[in-house]
Design a protein that fits this description.
173 residues, alpha+beta, rod-shaped
Length: 173
């Protein structure tokens, strides 16, 4: 009668201590715990890096929008006349108030969400040495980031009665 043979047990390598088992038996609980800790550390680090990059993207996007707001307001002012007292509206550089909050809804965007996030303030200073010819205009844009930090950008320009080219050209001659 035929007898099936029993599976052979792995032989202990020569010189190995008695009672040790082979690597094929699996991982120890300590090895699994160390591997889990390394994976948890890697995942936590990548989540923190992603959060930081999302904050950076948010600041960059808002900084770009603030720069566009500054440029838009400066271009609007550049198109104004130096002095126009013929109309009742404030439509010339000389008629601008010393400090004024600018409405984004009227000059930049129709989006109420964008207009609510940014605060724009314009200041106009008269040059002390040339009060009838020169104004310094500064525009400040301020906003809060998604994590609550306040950011601000500003732009300052000098406006001359007949343009900067005419102003410097006549000074030099």
């Amino acid at each position: 009668m035929f007898r099936p043979s029993r599976p052979r047990r792995a032989r202990r390598p020569l010189g190995a201590p008695v009672g040790t088992r082979s690597r094929a038996a699996g991982f120890t609980i300590f090895e699994v715990a160390v591997a889990g800790a390394v994976m948890a550390l890697g995942i936590a680090t990548s989540i923190l890096a992603m959060q930081s990059s999302f904050r950076t993207i948010d600041v960059a996007r808002d900084t770009t929008l603030a720069s566009q707001i500054l440029q838009s307001e400066m271009e609007r002012l550049r198109l104004m006349a130096w002095n126009n007292t013929a109309t009742a509206a404030v439509d010339s550089i000389c008629e601008l108030p010393e400090k004024e909050e600018v409405s984004l809804a009227s000059m930049f965007t129709s989006s109420a969400a964008v207009a609510a996030r940014f605060r724009v303030v314009r200041t106009v200073e008269v040059d002390s040495t040339r009060p009838t010819d020169v104004r310094y205009i500064t525009i400040y844009v301020q906003w809060r980031t998604s994590d609550g930090r306040t950011q601000q950008r500003s732009f300052r320009s000098m406006y001359a009665k007949n343009g900067l080219y005419d102003y410097y050209y006549t000074l030099a001659h």
